[in-house]
C-alpha cells in the first residue's frame, strides 16, 4: 500500500464531510469534554459543576478560569479506597471472564469452523444471534436461574447433588457467569473466522509428516488462530471492564465495578466531575488495547 | 472426533439459548411466582396491552429506533463508500479510528460523554438527543457492514457507466446503490435492533418524556423477576428474531 497522501477532490470532501463531522462532533468532542469536566469543581447547581474553561468572557477570562482548574475529582479517584477496589474488581472480573470465555469459545468455534460448508454460516449465525438481543434481557434471564430459589438450585436439589441451595446470586461468581454468557458471541466470531480461513492442506501436510491430531492442533491450528483469539479477547475485555448492567443486576452490594461506581456518582451522588474523571481514567487504561485493536482493523481495511 | 464436535456444538448452543428459552417459557406461566410452573396462560401478555406506561415506552423505543436507524444507515453508507473508494486521504487513520472505536468503547463512556456535550451546548434532552446518541454508535456498525458489501462489487460496471457518460452521482444512484440495497436493509435492521436494545446510552441521554422500553424494564427488574417482564422481554426477543431472520435471508446465509 502506498502511504503517499493525496488531496481529495471537492466532491469527495463533501461526501466524506457528513460522517466525519458527525463522529468528530458526537464522538471525539464529547470525549474531550469529559476530560475538561473532570477538571472542574463539583457544585450544587444545574449542571452540577463549575465550568473551568469558558469562552464567554474572552481570552483573558478563559486564562483566569483555566488557572483555577481543579484536581479535586482526580484526587478523589486516587484517594478514595472505593475506586481502588472498583479498579481491582473490574479488571480482575473482566480478565477472569475473558479467560473462561476463551476456553468455552475455542472448541465451540472449532466445531463450527470444521462443520460442512453448508451448515457453517447457519451455525455461526446462530452463535452470533444472541449478541443482537438485549444485554438487559439476557442478564435478566440469569437472575431467575441463579437465585437461591432459582432454576439451577431447583435442578441440583432435585437431582440430589446438593442439599441446601447454593448462594450464587449477588456474588462475583454470578457476575462472571453473566459476563461470560453475554460476551461469548464476541469471542466466537473472530476465532471461528480465523479457523475457517486456515488451509486444510497445512493440516494434511502435518499428518503426512507423522503428526497425530493433537500435535497438529498444537503446532499448526492453534498458533495460526492466535490473531483471532487475540481479537476476540480484546473485543470482550475492553467493554467488559466498563460493564454496568451485569454487576448491577447479578452482583451483590459489595460488587463494585467501575461502570457501577461511575453510574452511582453520576445519577445518585450527582458528582459529575468524579464520574468524568472515572471515565477518563477508564479510557486511559483501555487506550492501549483499543489502539492495538484498531491497528489490526486498520491493516485489514487498508 | 465427530462426536466430540457435535457434543461441543450441543453444549455451546444449550448454554447460549437455554436461559432465553426459560425466560420465554415462563412468560406463559399461570403463576405469579417466576420459577414455579403452574400451567399455561397468556394473561401476562394481556396485562401488557393495558399498561399505559409500557405502551408509551414502546412507542418511544420504536420511533427512536426508526429515526436513529435511518440516520445511521445514511451516514454509514457514506462512511463505507469513503472508506472503500477514497483509498488515500491524509486523516484516514483518524477516520478509521473514529469508525472502529465506538464498536468496543464501554457504553457508559459513550453515554456519559454524549450527555455532557448535550448539557454543554444546551441541546434539549428527549427524543432527538437519544436519536443522535444511538445514530452515533449504530452508524459505525452500519459502516462496517456496508463496506464489506461494497468491497465485493464488480468495479467494471461502474467503469462502464462512467465510460458511457454517467457522472459520479448518477453512477452512485443507478449502479452502486441497487447493488448494495440488501446490505442497506440489513444495516438498517441491525441499527434498529441495537437502538431498541440499548439501556445505558438511552439512560444518560433521554429526558423525562422519552423513557424507552429497556429503561422501563430496568426499573422493574431491580424489584425482582416477574412474569410480566418475562412477557415483555419475550416480545422484544420476537422482534429481534424477526429482524435477524430478515437479515439472514437478505444476506443469503452469510453470518451477521
What features would you describe in this structure?
The complex is a heterodimer of chains A (302) and B (256). By secondary structure, chain A is an all-alpha fold. Chain A is built from 13 helices and 2 strands; from the N terminus they run αββαααααααααααα. Chain A folds into 2 domains: 50-79, no CATH class; 86-301, MetI-like (MetI-like fold, Orthogonal Bundle). Chain A is globular, with a radius of gyration of 24 Å. Chain A starts with 9 loop residues before the first helix and ends with a helix. Mean pLDDT of chain A is 84; it is low at 1-5. Chain B folds into 2 domains: 1-41; 48-250, Orthogonal Bundle (MetI-like fold). Helix content of chain B is 76%, strand content 0%.
Question: Gist?
Answer:
The complex is a heterodimer of chains A (302) and B (256). Helices cover 74% and strands 1% of the residues of chain A.
CATH fold topology of the largest domain in chain A: MetI-like fold
Strands side by side in the biggest sheet of chain A:
1-2
**Rounded average pLDDT of chain B:** 89
Q: So what's the oligomer here?
A: heterodimer
Poorly predicted spans of chain B: none
| CATH architecture heading of the largest domain in chain B | Orthogonal Bundle
Major sheet of chain B: size, sense and barrel closure?
A: none
Amino acid at each position: 500500500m502506498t502511504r503517499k497522501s493525496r488531496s481529495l477532490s471537492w466532491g469527495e470532501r463533501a461526501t466524506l464531510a457528513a460522517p466525519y463531522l458527525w463522529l468528530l462532533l458526537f464522538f471525539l468532542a464529547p470525549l474531550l469534554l469529559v476530560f475538561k469536566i473532570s477538571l472542574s469543581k463539583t457544585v450544587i447547581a444545574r449542571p452540577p459543576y463549575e465550568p473551568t474553561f469558558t469562552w464567554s468572557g474572552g481570552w483573558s477570562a478563559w486564562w483566569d478560569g483555566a488557572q483555577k482548574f481543579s484536581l479535586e475529582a482526580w484526587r478523589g479517584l486516587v484517594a478514595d479506597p472505593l475506586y481502588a477496589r472498583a479498579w481491582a474488581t473490574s479488571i480482575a472480573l473482566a480478565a477472569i471472564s475473558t479467560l473462561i470465555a476463551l476456553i468455552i469459545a475455542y472448541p465451540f468455534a472449532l466445531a463450527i469452523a470444521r462443520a460442512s460448508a453448508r451448515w457453517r454460516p447457519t451455525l455461526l449465525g446462530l452463535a452470533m444471534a444472541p449478541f443482537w438481543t438485549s444485554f438487559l434481557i439476557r442478564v435478566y434471564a440469569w437472575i431467575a436461574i441463579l437465585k437461591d430459589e432459582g432454576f439451577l438450585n431447583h435442578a441440583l436439589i432435585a437431582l440430589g447433588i446438593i442439599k441446601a441451595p447454593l448462594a450464587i446470586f449477588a456474588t462475583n461468581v454470578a457476575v462472571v457467569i453473566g459476563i461470560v454468557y453475554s460476551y461469548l458471541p464476541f469471542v466466537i466470531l473472530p476465532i471461528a473466522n480465523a479457523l475457517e480461513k486456515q488451509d486444510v492442506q497445512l493440516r494434511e501436510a502435518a499428518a503426512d509428516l507423522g503428526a497425530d491430531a493433537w500435535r497438529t492442533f498444537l503446532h499448526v491450528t492453534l498458533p495460526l488462530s492466535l490473531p483471532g483469539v487475540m481479537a476476540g479477547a480484546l473485543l470482550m475485555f475492553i467493554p467488559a471492564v466498563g460493564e454496568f448492567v451485569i454487576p448491577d443486576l447479578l452482583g451483590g452490594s459489595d460488587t463494585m465495578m467501575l461502570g457501577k461506581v461511575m453510574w452511582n456518582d453520576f445519577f445518585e451522588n450527582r458528582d459529575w466531575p468524579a464520574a468524568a474523571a472515572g471515565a477518563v481514567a477508564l479510557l486511559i487504561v483501555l487506550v492501549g488495547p483499543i489502539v492495538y485493536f484498531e491497528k489490526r482493523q486498520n491493516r485489514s481495511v487498508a | 472426533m465427530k462426536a466430540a464436535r457435535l457434543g461441543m456444538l450441543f453444549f455451546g448452543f444449550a448454554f447460549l439459548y437455554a436461559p432465553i428459552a426459560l425466560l420465554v417459557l415462563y412468560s406463559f406461566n399461570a403463576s405469579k411466582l417466576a420459577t414455579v410452573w403452574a400451567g399455561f396462560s397468556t394473561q401476562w401478555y394481556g396485562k401488557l396491552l393495558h399498561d399505559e406506561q409500557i405502551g408509551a415506552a414502546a412507542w418511544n423505543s420504536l420511533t427512536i429506533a426508526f429515526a436513529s436507524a435511518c440516520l445511521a444507515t445514511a451516514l454509514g453508507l457514506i462512511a463505507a463508500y469513503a472508506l472503500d473508494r477514497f483509498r488515500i486521504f491524509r486523516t484516514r487513520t483518524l477516520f478509521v479510528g473514529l469508525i472502529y472505536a465506538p464498536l468496543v468503547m464501554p457504553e457508559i463512556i459513550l453515554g456519559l460523554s454524549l450527555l455532557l456535550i448535550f448539557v454543554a451546548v444546551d441541546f434539549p434532552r428527549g427524543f432527538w438527543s437519544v436519536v443522535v446518541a444511538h445514530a452515533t454508535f449504530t452508524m459505525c456498525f452500519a459502516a462496517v457492514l456496508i463496506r464489506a458489501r461494497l468491497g465485493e462489487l464488480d468495479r467494471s460496471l461502474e467503469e462502464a457507466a462512467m465510460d458511457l457518460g454517467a457522472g459520479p452521482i448518477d453512477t452512485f444512484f443507478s449502479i452502486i446503490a441497487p447493488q448494495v440495497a440488501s446490505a442497506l436493509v440489513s444495516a438498517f435492521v441491525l441499527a434498529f435492533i441495537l437502538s431498541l436494545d440499548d439501556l445505558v446510552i438511552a439512560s444518560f441521554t433521554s429526558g423525562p418524556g422519552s423513557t424507552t422500553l429497556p429503561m422501563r424494564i430496568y426499573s422493574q427488574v431491580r424489584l425482582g423477576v416477574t412474569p410480566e417482564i418475562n412477557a415483555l422481554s419475550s416480545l422484544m426477543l420476537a422482534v429481534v428474531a424477526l429482524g435477524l431472520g430478515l437479515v439472514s435471508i437478505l444476506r443469503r446465509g452469510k453470518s451477521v
